């Protein structure tokens, strides 16, 4: 009975891992990159170093006054206004508003309020592209549910894998290089043990973040199925501090011209600089202004969850309606639990060291899945199981191609996305969308290439392509923008310097992988290949 159960778990682990493994490799690689979505976005926006490197301090009060003046003149009657303040000297501020015919956006100079034709930044999704692909594959509805199903499959594969491998923790200390399938199994086990707690946590929290979508029954039972049900649910969860203070201006007058004073009051209340202003129903009697604070990333919070700090003002009188301090104690217990779950998944705690730990763990998780899918094909080369009858050889060929495309091909597509950012014309309509299309087209080309070429050559050629692209990225950046890693370091811009540094590191690792791939196999591997020939004929 026990052996029968383990055999069933082994079958489940094999086929669940294989069916989910290909897309999960892509999801984990893009998820790992999305941990650094802000530095990636800054690198892809390519703001001029000459202004970013200046030692001047930001005058956000003056920038806010410029924003208020521009919106009052050009966006009167809009449903909402959004002011994204610059975070570094020389950066532009972004104004967004919604009218009846759609949403408009403009970039203004923070120094003089003049509109910038192209802005100081390139139009790009930046690191947000990796995050969007990570949780919905750029397929808004289908992708959302597909990723949820794959995440469930990951949990099933993890649990069944623990059941199957009785000596999994002992095998962690055993690695036998050059032993064919045994080496791949050792690598699979070692990566699994190192990342098992992380993988269980990341899969569970990834599902839990969207609990009202994946399990909508409880929400509908309590709040009904009306469009505002979720808003009422969130309102009940909120327990923000209510601090009505004295009005800022005369009763009945909007305070558009006094935004800078509102922002300064918010900064005093929150103990943080402002990063974003949200104005609802501007110019109307019910106008409100919400100021969101900017947490200090140089001094990461010791708490697992730190809420987004914000102050809500009455847009007519300037009275403070609501204060959300950056302290979880001010939230209801349900919102605190949800905040912890989100913080665990997005690595919104522990500062940069925690982000690097998530990044490395995510890559190890991807390598664990890649080793598992490769192990399937290597074992079948040695002894075919003929699971698909006469079509078995063709199915194995497709599995080989999917292995190449979803591991090496995804790496090529990711680095090609950075190339598209630098090579597409700056004024090209729909530029950000074409960057994403370039990523998807390169990934599709990698799959076609893997199907057209023998497996061993496809691996070599795609790994070589990815390595060359990684090494060439700093040169491309220098030729197209005049910027490079040395100038970033000189300007103390370590975020953008790290993007190119990581690209070069990946290039070195890919070269190492290529050398391993072309290394002459030892006698044990040769014996395995010779013994595989009769099985392939039958």
Offer a concise description of the structure.
With 538 residues, the chain is of the alpha+beta class.
Structural notes for this entry:
This protein is α+β, with helices and mostly antiparallel strands and 538 residues long. It has a domain at 2-45 and 128-209 and 348-537. Helix content is 62%, strand content 9%. It has 20 helices and eight strands. The chain has helices at 2-34, 37-45, 49-52, 60-74, 128-136, 142-164, 168-171, 181-209, 211-214, 217-223, 229-237, 259-270, 333-346, 351-382, 392-423, 431-452, 455-481, 485-490, 494-518, 523-537; strands at residues 80-84, 92-99, 102-109, 115-116, 274-280, 288-293, 310-314, 320-324. It has an eight-stranded antiparallel sheet with strand order 4-3-2-1-5-6-7-8. A hairpin with a 7-residue loop joins strand 5 (274-280) and strand 6 (288-293). The longest helix has 33 residues, at 2-34. The two termini are 32 Å apart. InterPro entries: PepSY-ass_TM. Keywords: Membrane, Transmembrane, Transmembrane helix. This is PepSY domain-containing protein. The chain crosses the membrane at residues 12-36, 142-164, 185-211, 356-378, 398-420, 432-451, 463-485, 497-514.
């Amino acid at each position: 009975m026990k052996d029968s159960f383990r055999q069933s778990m082994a079958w489940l682990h094999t086929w669940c891992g294989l069916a989910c493994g290909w897309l999960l490799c892509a999801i984990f690689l893009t998820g790992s990159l999305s941990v650094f979505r802000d530095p990636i976005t800054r690198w892809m926006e390519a703001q001029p170093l000459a202004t970013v490197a200046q030692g001047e301090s930001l005058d956000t009060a003056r920038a806010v006054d410029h924003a208020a003046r521009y919106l009052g003149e050009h966006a009167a009657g809009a449903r909402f206004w959004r002011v994204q303040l610059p975070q570094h000297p020389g950066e532009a501020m972004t104004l967004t508003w919604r009218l009846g015919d759609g949403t408009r956006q403009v970039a203004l100079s923070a120094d003089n309020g003049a509109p910038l034709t192209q802005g100081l930044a390139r139009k790009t999704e930046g690191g947000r592209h990796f995050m969007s692909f990570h949780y919905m594959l750029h397929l808004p509805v289908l992708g959302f549910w597909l990723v949820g199903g794959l995440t469930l499959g990951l949990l099933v594969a993890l649990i069944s894998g623990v059941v199957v491998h009785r000596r999994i923790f002992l095998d962690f200390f055993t690695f036998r290089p050059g032993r064919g399938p045994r080496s791949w199994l050792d690598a699979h086990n070692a990566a699994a043990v190192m990342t098992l707690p992380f993988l269980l946590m990341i899969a569970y929290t990834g599902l839990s973040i969207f609990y009202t979508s994946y399990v909508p029954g409880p929400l509908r039972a309590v709040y009904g199925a009306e469009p505002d049900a979720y808003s009422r649910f969130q309102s009940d969860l909120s327990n923000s501090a209510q601090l009505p203070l004295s009005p800022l201006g005369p009763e009945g007058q909007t305070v558009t011209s006094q935004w800078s004073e509102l922002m300064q009051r918010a900064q005093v209340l929150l103990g943080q600089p402002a990063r974003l202003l949200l104005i609802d129903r501007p110019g109307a009697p019910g106008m409100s202004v919400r100021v969101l604070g900017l947490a200090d990333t140089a001094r990461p919070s010791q708490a697992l969850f730190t809420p987004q700090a914000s102050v809500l003002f009455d847009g007519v009188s300037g009275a403070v309606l609501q204060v959300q301090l950056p302290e979880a104690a001010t939230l209801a217990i349900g919102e605190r639990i949800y905040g912890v779950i989100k913080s665990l998944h997005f690595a919104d705690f522990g500062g940069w060291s925690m982000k690097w730990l998530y990044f490395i763990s995510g890559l190890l998780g991807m390598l664990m899945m890649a080793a598992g899918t490769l192990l399937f094909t290597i074992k079948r080369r040695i002894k075919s199981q003929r699971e698909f009858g006469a079509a078995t050889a063709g199915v194995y060929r497709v599995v080989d191609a999917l292995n190449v495309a979803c591991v090496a091909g995804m790496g090529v597509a990711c680095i090609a996305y950075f190339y598209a950012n630098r090579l597409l014309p700056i004024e090209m309509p729909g530029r950000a969308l074409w960057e994403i299309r370039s990523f998807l087209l390169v990934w599709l080309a990698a799959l076609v290439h893997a199907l057209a070429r023998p497996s061993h050559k496809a691996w070599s050629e795609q790994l070589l392509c990815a390595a060359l692209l990684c090494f060439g990225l700093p040169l491309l950046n220098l030729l197209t923008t005049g910027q490079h890693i040395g100038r970033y370091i000189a300007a103390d811009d370590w975020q953008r310097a790290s993007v190119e540094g990581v690209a070069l590191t990946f290039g070195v690792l890919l070269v190492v992988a290529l050398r391993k791939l072309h290394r002459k196999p030892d006698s044990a591997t040769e014996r395995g290949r010779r013994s595989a020939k009769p099985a392939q004929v039958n």
